[in-house]
C-alpha cells in the first residue's frame, strides 16, 4: 500500500475500487476475482491518499484464459504466482470497510463480487458507510451525451486516453472522469441559458489559429476523438442554427402571427354579426 497526504480528520474517506474477473462462458459458472485495485480519496481535496492493488490467483487456474481478448488483459501466466483471495483478504477488507465506496457500475457488479469472494472464504464482507456509483450518478446528471456511459466512452469523450481494464488504472481514470463531468455540470448550472446543451454538439467545432505566409488565419476544425480531420476556412462564428435556417424560422414565426391576427379578426366579426341578429 502507498500512503499520501491526509484530509480533514473525522471525515469519511472515499475509496474508488475496481475488480477484474473471469467471464463465465456457460450457465452456472461463477466469477473469479483476478485483480483488485483501489485508491483512497479525500472528499474535500479529491486527492489520492492511499493506493493498493494486487493480482489474485483463483484456486482453479483453468478458469483463466491462456490469452486475454484485451490488449492489457490478465492471462493465466500473469496470475499463476499471485496470492489467493484468502491471502489478501485482510488488505482488501481494510481498504473498503467503513469508507464511502465509489466506482463505475459497482452496485450491480463489483459489490456483488466482493460479497461472493468473502463468503467463499467464510468471512464477513466489508461494509460501506455510503456508496457512489458513477454509472448511476452520471447517467442521471450528465445524460447520455457521451454515448453508452461506459468508462471507455466517457474517457474518450474527455480525451483521457484508452481504458486499460486494469484495476488501479481504471479507478484513477474513474476519478478523472468524475472531475471532468462535475466541471461541465458546474459551468452549465452557472450559465444555464448559454451553456445548457451546447456541450453535446457532435461533432465538436473547435476554433484554432495558425500562421500562413506571415498572416494570422483562423480555421474551424471538425474532429472526432479517434480520427481528427480539419478544413481550413475563413473565420466563422458558430450559431445555434444552420446556415439559412434562421431566415426560415423568422418567416415561419411571421406566418404564425399573421394567422393568429386573421383568426382574431374573424372572431370579432362573428361576435359582431351575432349581436346584430339578436
Keywords:
278 residues, alpha/beta, Nucleotidyltransferase, domain 5, six-stranded mixed sheet, two-stranded antiparallel sheet, 8 helices, 18% strand, nucleic acid binding, exonuclease
For the residues shown, what is the average pLDDT? 76
Q: In this structure, how is the largest beta sheet organized?
A: 6 strands, mixed
Query: Terminal Cα separation, in Å?
Result: 95 Å
- Within CATH, the superfamily of the domain at 14-190 carries the name Ribonuclease H-like superfamily/Ribonuclease H
Q: Unreliable runs, pLDDT <50, ≥5 residues?
A: 201-250
Round the Cα radius of gyration to an integer and report it. 28 Å
* Number of contiguous helices: 8
The top-level CATH class of the domain at 14-190 is Alpha Beta
Q: How do the helices and strands follow one another from N- to C-terminus? A: EEEEHHEHEHHHHEEH
Percent helix among the residues? Answer: 25-40%
Description:
The chain is of the alpha/beta class. The chain has a domain of 177 residues: Nucleotidyltransferase, domain 5, CATH 3.30.420.10. Strands 1-4-3-2-5-6 form a 6-stranded mixed beta sheet, with helices on both faces. Strands 7-8 form a two-stranded antiparallel ribbon. Strand 3 and strand 4 form a beta hairpin. The longest helix is centred in the last third of the chain and has 33 residues. The radius of gyration is 28 Å and the shape is globular.
